[in-house]
Every structure is written in C-alpha cells, then in structure tokens.
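Typical record was shown:
=====
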Amino acid sequence: MSGEGGELERTLGFVEAMTLGGGTMIGAGIFILPGIAAESAGPASSISYAIAGFVALLAALSLSELATGMPIAGGSYHYVNRALGGLFGAVVGWGMWTGLMFASAFYMIGFGQYLVEPIPFLDGRAFIVGLGLVGLILLLGVNYYGTEESSAFQNVTIGTETVIILVFVAVGVFFIDAGNLEPFAPFGTRGIVATTGIVFISFLGFEIIATVAGEIKNPSRIIPLSMILSVVLVTILYVLVMLVSTGVIPFESLGESPIPVSDVAVVYLGSAGVVAIVFAAIIAAISSSNSSILAASRVIYAMGRDGVVTDWFNASHPRFYTPHRAIAATGGVTALLILVGLEVETIIALLAEAASFSFLVAYSLVHVSLVVFRRADPDDYDPSFALPRPLYPVVPVLGVVSSLVVVSQMANVVVVIGSAIVGFGVLWYAAYTRGRVVSEGLLREAIRGPPAQPFRVVVPIANPATQRGLLRLAAASTHANEDRGTPELVAVNVTAVDHPSPLQNVEAERADHQRDLLENAHDIATQMDVTLRTKAVVAPDVGEAILDVIEEEAADEVILGWDGTLDRDGYVFGETVDPVVQRAGCDISLVDLRGESIGEPVALIAPGPNAPVVAHQAVEFAAVDGTVPTLLNVQSPGSKPDSDAEERGRAVIADAAAAAGLEPVEYDVEVVVDDDVGRAVVDATSRYDTVCVGLSGRSEGGRIPFGTVTERVVNDVPGNIVLIRGSEPA
C-alpha cells in the first residue's frame, strides 16, 4: 500500500446501496438493450430477462454470504482470490475490471446516442463519442472527489429515472397489441438463451454493492438486503418493460431502433413522453456508468492491495479517501473503449456481451468459492448472512450450471474475446503475480475437508533480519507436536495506526514492508514443509492486536521476537511484549536471536511449573539444526557433599523431563555444583549456541518477575536467549 494511505471510508447506507445496485440495473440497459434483445429473441426477450435475473439472483445469494463474511473492497474478485488463490484471482480480477469498463463504455455510448438521435442537426459517430467522453470526464471527477458525493448524485438521478420508467410501464400496458406478441418466440429456445447473455449486463448492479462493501455502513444487514431486493425488483421491472415494448410495436421495428424505448413511448405518451424518456435515458446512462467506474476502480484497487498488480493502485487519497489512482486508470481505459466505437451498433452489442461474459465466468467461480469457504471453514470467515439448507448447496451448484449454459450460447466472437481476457489473466499470473501474492487460497483445505484439531503456533513478525530464525523455531515446534494436533503456523504482522476512524475500512490497509514480510514467510514455510497462514492486521496498539490474534486463533504456543533489553522505560521487555507475556493464555517463548543458527541449545532447569515447558521447548528447538539439547541444573553445595548436590540436580532434570514426556535419548544432562550459582549458570550456558530459561507464569503487582539469574543470562551470555513462560500459572 502506498504511503499516501490505503483506507476507504464507510459512508454508504441502505439507500445509497440500493441506488448503486438497483440504480445501475435500472440504467442504460433498459433504454438501449430492448432493441437488441427484441431483434435476437422477439417478444420472448422478456423471458431472457427473467432468466438473466434468475442467474443474477443465484449469484446475489452467494455473494451476500461472502460479502457479509468479508466486507472489504473488491467484490467477487476478492472472494475468488481468497478462496481459490492467486491464479483464479488474477483471472476474475482482470475479467471484472475489463467487464466493468466495457459496461461503462457501453453506457456512455448510449448516453451520446440518446442525445444525438432526437436532435436533427447532430449526427454521426463523432458527436456520440464526443458526448460520451464529456460525460465520462464528469463522472471521473465525481468519483475522485468522494464516494459519498458519488452516491448522492446517484440518489437524485435514480429516483427521477425510476419514476419515468414506472409511468412508461403503467400507461403502456393499456396499449399492448396482442398481435405484436405473436409469434412469441420466433427464434426458439436457443434465441432466448443467447439473448440472456446479451442482456445479463443489465444485472451487474448487485455486484457493485459487493465491490464497494468496504465502504458500506452496517454491512451485515445492508449488503444482503440491498443485493437480493435490487435483483428481484429490477427483474420484474425489466420483464414488464420488454412485454410493453414488444407489445406496443412489432419486435422487428424495435430491433432496428437505436433508441427503442423512446420509439415505444411516442406511440402513447406523445412528444412529452419522448422528452421524458430521452431525459431518463441520459441520466440512466450517466448513473450506470458512474456505478461501473466506482466498482471497477475498487477492483483494481483490491488487486493492488493483494499483489496481483502493482501496489501503486493500492492508494487512497489522503483527503477524500477515494482510490484516486485506480479511478484515473479506469477512466483512461474506458475512454479508449469509447473511442473504439467506429460502428456504434456493433460496438454496443459487443461491449454488452463481453461484459456479460466476464461476469458470468466470475460468478461461476464465486459459487465455487462459497463451497470452498464452507468446507475449509477458515477462522476469519463468519458471515452474518448464511444460505440455509436447502438453498445450500443448491444455489451454488445451480449457479455454476446456469452461468456456463448462458456462456455456451454466446456468439463466437464474444467467446473469443472473453477467452482472451481469461488467457491474459493466466499469463499475467504466471509472469507477474506468482510469487508476489501472499494468499494461497483455501482450495487445498476444502478438498481435504474440515480440518483436524490443529496444534497452532502464532509467530508475530516485524523484522526481516530475524523472521527466518523465528519461523524456523516455530516450524520445529509445530512438527514436534504433531501428536497433539495438525501442525499449523500462523505468521502475523501488525501495522500500527495512531488514530483509526471507526468509519474507515482499515481492514484493507497494508504496508509495503508488511507484504514483503508475509511473502518471505511463505517462502520460508515452503522450505520447512509446514502449513502456514498469514494475517495482516492494522491496529493502534500492536500488543493488544497480537493478543487478539492469539485468542482468535486459539493458539497453543507463541514464538515472539524480543530485542534482549530488560527493564526499560517502565516495561520489563517492552511496551509491545509485556502485555502478551502477562495475558496470553498459552505457552510463550521470547526469543532474542543473536547468532545465525540455533545450534545446540541448553535448557536451564530449576524446580517449578515451567521446568517441563523449558525442557520440551529445548528439544523442539534443537530439531532445527538436528542437535541434541542439554538440560542443565546448577546446584549450590550447601552443607552436603557435592555428590548429593549432583544427585539433587539430576533428580530435578529427570522430573522435568518426565513431566515433559521426554525420553532419555532425546537430551543430555549436565549438573553444575558451585557456590556462586549466578556465575556458574553464565559460565555453563555460555558454551552453548542457544539458552532456554523459564519465567514465572504470572506477573506480580503488574510486573513480570524474571529473577537475577535470568537477568545475568540475558546480559552476560553471548548466545541466543529464549525466555519461556508456560500456560499454567506459577
């Protein structure tokens, strides 16, 4: 993420979500596509719209669950990327971005067309394209300035055009000539299904709600309600519009018109009706294009956030909290698409179908992603809206089948264009994205089914110089505890934000170094043959954020880096580390890595509840370099002979090893008898590469006791230092 900031503000309520979703669907598609649809399917084009609405409703249901589980910018792209991994994420991301830009260009060409056709002295492609570009520039400015301003603009335009369309339908039903509806399906079932692919672009509005989920207030309620309601209402409206349009004038005449709804309105509403329809078509084109630009910019923004494209796109304006770079790039490509419109009729149909193809492919993968999330059941997926049985798994299965059936009936040229975009996504992943993305997806976990009870080690990472060593220790711990559960390593990096606003979508914020750390963690985990998940967190307090992750993950163990400093600025180990040591409900190892390798560890064993944990941890850490640890006890001779002191020391070690479940072959024993225990500990442990020392399980009076011996080890021993606190209180 750019240093300029990567936060989007949550400002959209139910009305704004409905106008973005429903308003986009009650847009240019209702004014331009009826002619093309009638030409392809006749009066049965109303059935095409009904089928398209049904396919869209299936996708909206799956998206509603996914969006409430992960209300973050990116929509279908983000869910597919998270579920199926970077390859499918790249395919869907590029498909959605190009599809939304195709849609936006289609809308703006329609905008120019409705302005030019009724005015006698305006004619030709230059006027249509020029007006489209002017409208596009206006919309880019609105989107750049702010999402809330963009939505307010939507509210006004959608309300006006909706009233006009309702009047068009309510009056038009009385002028339907039944003879015009015969034959109802002149091109048969194939024509109906093929037309479904053309008109599917009319139902992209609900996707826009998911795409801007990171900017919606109360997403758990508003997202599913606005998605499902907008699809149902708009589908009914489209069916009525097509029945009126093909019932008032013959479908052959309707198919020849570049402004079909206007030609229908003139029959029973006269010139005043035509003016109203033209006005509605113009504002519909603008509002639909506005929504498409809004959504497209969020897709490329999210792709930058996830490393699919350069993170140059993953920047929000420091004042307006809008993805200004993503908006500029989206506008530039859309302008080029508008300029391509040499033959307006051809380019309109082609842009519409190409956009439909991209989204039908995306939605088929969205349905698969829902199944993957359900089966993998990741800890961070907790949707407030979940499909109940029998809707699950019927909805995703039927959604995949219906989407692919519609795609299979599209024109060959559209399939070629759509397949080329898919191929580009695959090549882009292979050439650029692979190795850069952090997420590997959940597909493998979904195939394996519900995971077994894990043994989970959490590793906060912040320093590239020490992360390899910390991850090696954590990997050794996970492998050593395979008998206690499926080994799982969770690497977490926390980016501190001093004053996060509750309205900001801070989930999306990633720092550049954060991405590098987590990418490196995946590389290291692959080398060590350990299952790794990564978490990127933004919070005002790093220590509290780590504690939250430990609790959410139900961690069994934490490996935490530490700089080796004691008693500084009122903290024992530091402002971040102290609360974790004091309050984490699992075993904790504080590691000060001073050398390049773990080498041969020594565990300082003293009577107490931490002794077994220290002994076991030393054995785990020794596995990193294939060595055998030494369990060390230092005794003061007191008034008894040295042999008695040595026997006492061996007994302490044996008890600790037995409590830790260790076999004698897993460790060596060393007992040192000396009057100066502190000096003897330092002398003995200095011969080893890594020293493991126990801490008390509880703090005393708000302090973490570590003892003079521990302090001398930390200050005087040159090797790596590991301070260990078991989960059981002292």
Notes: The first helix runs from residue 14 to 25. The chain has a mean pLDDT of 82.
